[in-house]
Every structure is written in C-alpha cells, then in structure tokens.
Amino acid sequence: MGNGGAAFAGAAHARMHTDARIRRHVRASEFRGWNGPSGRRTHAARVALPRGRMSAGPARGLRMKFSASSSDTSASETATDSSGPLLIEATGLSKSYDGERVQLDNVSFQIARGAKVGVVGQNGCGKSTLLRILAGTESPDAGSFWTRKGTAVAIVGQEEQFDPSLTISELLFRANTESVRALREYETIARKLERAAQSSAIDDPSAEHADEMARLTTQLERCTVKMDALNAWDLEAFARQVLSRLGIVDMERKVGSLSGGERKRIALAAALIERPELLILDEPTNHLDIDRITWLEEYLQNPALSVVVVTHDRQFLDSVCTSIYELDYGSLYTHPGSYEAFLENKDARMDAQEKLAQDARVRLRKELEWMRRQPKARQAKSKSRIENFYNLQKQEAAGARGRADLQLSVQVSRMGTMVLNMEDVCLSFGQKKILDHFSYEFQKGDRVGVVGRSGIGKSAFLRVLAQLQKPDSGVVTIGETIKFGYYEQGGIEIPDEKDQRVIEWVTEVMQRAGNADMSAIQLLERFQFDKAQWYTFIDRLSGGEKRRLQLMKVLAEKPNFLVLDEPSNDLDLQTLETLEDFLSEFDGVLVVVSHDRIFMDRLTNHIFVFQGDGVVRDFTGTFTDYLLLVREEEKLQNKLSFGAGLGAGQGAQRVAAEEKSGSKQAKTAQKTVKTKLSYNERREYGKIQGEIDKLQETHARVNEQLLEPSLRYTELAELSEELARVEALIDAKTERWMELAELAGD
C-alpha cells in the first residue's frame, strides 16, 4: 500500500493503541453499504453574506439591501417553496454585468428547510449567478436578501478553483466547525504518530524518539477524549462513506495533480462532509458515473436537507427536485412538481405569450402609423400613447423570443461501405488495462453508447476511435470516406479567447473546415447566438455558450462518424433537446459517452460496458434495457447464493425453479439473439472458465485478508472495494459463460 489515505491509516494505527471502543468503526460493511445520511445536524459556520446595508429583518435573521443604479425595475411575484421553516428570502434582486444582458430582473423567491429546487434556463441566462448570490459569494445590483441566522450553506460550483499546494485531506477538512477542527487535529496527530512508529521500527530506536512517541500518544489520547465529547466519530465515519462512494482514496495527493473530474468530486465530497442545511450545486452530475449519480440522488432526498441545483440531467431533476425555478430573460417563473410538469406549464405560458404577441403586433402597426403622423414637438397628452407603443414593442419581442429554437441542420459527408474495424486491440494506461484484445466492426448507422465507472478508460477508447491515440497492439482499419467529428469532454482550447471575438473565431472555423455552404453569421444565428454576442470576447461567454461554440466547430466539418465525450455537459435543456433531435436524424455512425440516462436511451441502441481489467461487455439494446438486465442478474445471483446455503433439499429445488424463470426474464432484455458463436466468441469461450476460476481464487484470498484484526482503515477500504470489484467480475463472466455455452449448444 502506498501513501493513499494516510490520514485515515494513521488514525487507525493510533486508535488501536488508545481506545478499543473505536474499533466499531472498522467494519467492512461501512465501506460496502450506505443507508443515506444520518440526518444529524452539525453546527457549521454561517455563510458569509454579500456586502450591503443592513436593515431590520425577521427575528434571528439578517437582511441585506442593495442599491440599483437605476430604479426602473418591474414588479414580480415571489416564487416560494415553503415545505418547512424559511431559510432564505430574496426580494427584487437584479443583476447585469454589462448593462445590456440582464441576468436577474426584479426576481423574488423564498427557500424553506427541506426544499428541493431545480434551476433551469438557457445558457448565459444567469443560473450560476443566482447560485452565487444564494451562497453569498456574489452581490446583486439591487434588492434585499435575508438568510436565517446560523444557516450553514455549502456550494459546489461548475468550475472549482483550489490552492494546488493543498492535499486532498487538507481541502476536505477545511470547514471551520468544532467537530471538523477536532477531527482535523486528530488526523494530524495520527499521521505524525504513524510516521514516528514507522521510523522507530526502521532506523531510529533512540530514547528521544521513544519520548516523541509517548508525547504523540498522549496528544492523541486527548484528541480521542475531545472527539468522544463532540461525537465526532460519527462525522469521521460519514466522511469515509462519502469518500468511498465518490471514489476518493489517496488523501495525500496534491490538488494541483488532480484532473477536472477529480476536483469536482473532491469539491462535492467537501460540501457533503460539512453537512450544511442548504446545499447549492452547479451541474453536480458532470464527471460522475451512473452509480455515483444514483447514490447522490438518494442522498439528496434527505428531508432535512434543502437543495438548490442547476443541472441538465432531466432524470436527476425528476428524482431529486419537487419544484423548478425557470430563469427566462431576467424573469423567474416557479413550477411546482416534476420536470414533466415544468414542461407542460412552460408550454402553456409560451402559448399565452404568443397570443399576447399576436394581439400586440396588430395594435403595434396601428400605433406605429400614429407615431409617424405625430409632429416632432408632441403634446403632453400623447405621452401615455407613446409609452403604450413601447410596451407593445416589448410584448411583441417577448413572443418572438419565446419560441426561438436552436436549429441544427448540417450536411454529412458521404460514407462508403467500409466504416471502421477494430481487431484484437489492446490498450493500457500504466498498469491499468483498458482494452484486452477487443474486436468490433462498425457498420453505417451504428449508434453505440459507452458506459463504465469514472476513470475506467472510456475517453481513451474514444480517442483511439477518432485516431487521436494509437493502441498498444491490434489493428484499426478506417474506411477511406470516414470523416470524424470528435467532441472532447474537456472543451475547446482557444488560446487567445480574451482577445478574440466570437464572430472572428467562427469565421476562422468555417475557413479551416472549407465550409462554403453558409456564412459565419448564418451559423451563429443557427446556433442561437444573438447579434449582441457576435462581437463579444469569447472569455465573457458562459460555460454552456462555449460548449455551443465547440459543438458548432465539430458539426461545421461535416463529419459522418461522430465521437462524442459527454456532449450534454453544461448545455442548457433547450440546446440538449435540440441536439437530441439532430442526432436522432443523423445517418452516420454515432459513438457517445454520457452520464445522461435519458440522452443515452433516446440516441443509442447498442452499449459497450467497460467493466475493468480490459473487459468490455457488448450489449444490444438501450441503456435502460441493460440496467434491467443487470437487476435480473443480481436477483438471480442472490437466489443462487441462497440456494447454495440451503444445500440439496427442497429450498435448492425451489431456487433452481426460480433460476430458470429468472433467466428467461433476464434474456427478454437482450434485444438481439445470435444462433452461433463467432470466431472471437469461440476464443472467449475457450478461456472464460479459467478466468472465472482465477477470480474465485482471488475472492477467497481477499475474504481471508478481511478477517485480519490488525487491518488499517485504508487497507480495509481497499480490500472491501477489491472484493466488490471481483464479485462483479465473477457475476459478469459467469453470465457471459452461460450465454456462450447456450450459443455453443453445451
């Protein structure tokens, strides 16, 4: 074992020497099972409010007033989610960064304890701005903002900036609460004692070193007493569960060495460990795999926790949120209920706006004629009619923009018969196998989804497909007419984005792509960039707007083989749905990695499941079909395990009958049934039994190691995770062996 999780390892070592009672925390079940949050509240530091003038507010609360440079704000109704005591109240909030595009225009809302609010709206409309105002990290231009005194608030932003010199451990336990301070002190002393113990055993047996060991042990005993008094062991156990669920192991890694996805998971873990009353999340599902998203959904359903979340993941919205706040051109609309209810309400509102706009258009023509006939020196009695003219203009514009949709319709290069063939491809990253003799022949019209846990190698596989990375061995044959379009998860790199305007960059993209079918302005209009944005510097665009530029660049090159790595990240829901419509009509080859379950179901009918150690399971059907199959397999495995315990009696006969029924149910999820083994399947069938035998030997060895009483925390965590991984592989390979045996007629 390396230095991974040294904080918890040190704690375990010292704890075994100081207080036997704490041994209750090292059960393997704590690493393999999770029943959701305990619901226990901790006293976290109150969020720092934005600067402003203080005025009297509700009892035990603080109200902040902000002055506007202009008093021309329209009244709006207060959006309320009041399922419990009020935590936050905002009245008349307004915000604009440049005086032209308005993010918030006289917005009012309330958030109560236990509320679950999803915030939606177009890219650049002000969703992230609203979250930052809620968290107190940004001030509005006008309006008042009240938060209940003592309310603990935590925010996880879309892009987190951390001190690169910090370790993960230091970052995770940075909250300034009494329990966290006690835990931080305990872990620091435990690490010192761990290092001292290792040093004395190796090269420093001196009396001075023994005194140092005794001093550290005494300090640790004091920390143990303090942890007992604060009941901080519960916090420590909760922290370990969160870290395990989010796949955070090496606590001593420097933050500067982490990838963007790892930083996002660390930020999420840090926020959860604080146990806030109000949790604010900006695109939390980005960089999470499906299992972790499902766990997060379950965690956020804690009725004591208030949640405000911006996300493009529609299933996440439906699972977590009980109301939707929609930001639309500075106004805020509230929609109680699910995401589906929001869509129905919005459609009705847009119909009403369109009717108003049609009426306004008729009256506008009449008023325009009147305005033109008026002399330059208008009389005072005409002022009300002039004001009416401008109001009609606003109504007409609101109706026009309400139905404005992104239009994706680009040409696709011709595709020949030969597409792409992968034969016996191997790919590794360090000691980690990504592909192990993988073979597949792509055909025109293939729509493949790629799934698997974070860090398993999905992006590397896409890079091999797009000819951006070479495999370690094997043959990849590309058809002469194939033209790749690769959408990278990390976004596009624009070195001079601070000095380059949007229209300049788009013009260069069109010229490089040799696309003479439309002008840069036509492309910008098609991708819903209004005229005010054409000459904006790129660095001033929102994350979602930059993603639209990236999508524009990929499609402008007329690809016929699209390779998309998390294309839904940071896109607003309207853009996402338009992209789905476009891709559903795309007649080339589509290979996509996405954590968005609805997106995957609508666009793919074939799944590559990356299971680890180079194993890729090939499944024909949608992602939901695959999940149903996995559930049936798990039920079958549980019944088999139960039957093994019963022996050869009546119970075993019952399990055998249920196994037959369960197998039939599982097979209904598989859409395509083959009638014979291919060459590669015969090779696979010849070696799969040996692989299962080796995995069972590993399973037995890990089980024996878990019984060792002297295990450290990190060793226990790693072994528990290894056991779960091996069990999953045994299940998968056993099921695969059964499939191949049936096809072979054995």
From TrEMBL:
Keywords: ATP-binding, Coiled coil, Cytoplasm, Hydrolase, Nucleotide-binding, Protein biosynthesis, Repeat, RNA-binding, rRNA-binding, Translation regulation, tRNA-binding. Pfam families: ABC_tran, ABC_tran_CTD, ABC_tran_Xtn. CDD domains: ABCF_EF-3. Gene3D superfamilies: P-loop containing nucleotide triphosphate hydrolases, Valyl-tRNA synthetase, C-terminal domain. One of its GO terms (molecular function) is ATP binding. It comes from the Eukaryota. This is Probable ATP-dependent transporter ycf16. Residues 88-354, 420-637 form the ABC transporter domain. GO terms for biological process: regulation of translation; translation. Residues 685-736 form a coiled coil. The keyword Membrane does not apply.
